[in-house]
Specification:
The chain is an alpha/beta fold. The chain has helices at 2-23, 30-42, 45-61, 96-105, 132-138, 154-167, 192-200; strands at residues 63-64, 71-72, 86-93, 110-114, 145-148, 173-176, 203-204. The radius of gyration is 22 Å and the shape is elongated. The chain binds zinc ion (ZN).
């Protein structure tokens, strides 16, 4: 009897552990975590194994592109290794998600530089905490234009100004995407038309 009782507890804690793990992910509240946990439990075991394997493999193999800093599973991401792209135009974005948003428009043929963050004095994130040194190194090659596409939040604007001040002395053209991208909005949720308008309407800094 005692054994079956502890089995019950054990089973219970496994489920709560799963719910807890799922609930620790961004954007997943406790209700969603529960729904996902029960969904996972009802899935065929081989599908759950495939899901678990994709998590572990992605975490193990995904790294940052050594050129632009985006997430990839190669040394160079597909964009940086594509010779048909215009490597003389570099769009500076905050994150890989922003890169993905611009890629989805299908209308940008340059390359990117992913900062992996923005300057935020409140959060103690300074210029040396984002990939600015790497950007300046890239600018020693043949570059015609740097398009600053950080968000229109205070941090995004601060970062844009900082980059512009760094790049201008090099004589390379510096532009800023047009505003209209909502303040603090995640670029991935902005429709492609708005993104394209922001890109086409970019202004000289
Ligand atoms: Zn890359």
């Amino acid at each position: 009897m005692g054994d079956s009782d502890s089995d019950m507890d054990y089973y219970g804690s496994q489920i709560s552990n799963l719910i807890e793990q799922l609930g620790s992910l961004p954007g997943i509240g406790s209700k969603t975590a529960q729904r996902l946990a029960f969904h996972i439990i009802s899935m065929p075991p081989e599908r759950v194994e495939a899901l678990a394997a994709s998590l572990t493999q992605a975490r193990r193999n995904v790294r940052y592109c050594k050129e632009c800093g985006t997430l990839t599973d190669q040394e160079l991401c597909p964009i940086c290794s594509d010779l048909k792209r215009d490597h003389r135009t570099i769009m500076v974005v905050e994150s890989s998600r922003d890169l993905a948003a611009y890629e989805k428009t299908g209308h940008y043929n340059g390359v990117y530089h992913v900062l992996q963050g923005v300057i935020s004095p409140q959060l103690g994130i300074g210029p040396s905490d984002i990939r600015l040194k790497e950007l300046m190194q890239r600018l020693q090659g043949d570059v015609d234009e740097v398009i600053i596409a950080t968000g229109s939040s205070l941090e995004g604007e601060t970062t844009a100004m900082y980059i512009s001040r760094l790049v201008k002395p090099t004589g390379i053209r510096v532009t800023r995407i047009a505003s209209g991208v909502p303040v603090g909005g995640d670029l991935e949720y902005i429709d492609e038309v708005t993104l394209l308008r922001a890109l086409d309407g970019r202004v000289e800094l």
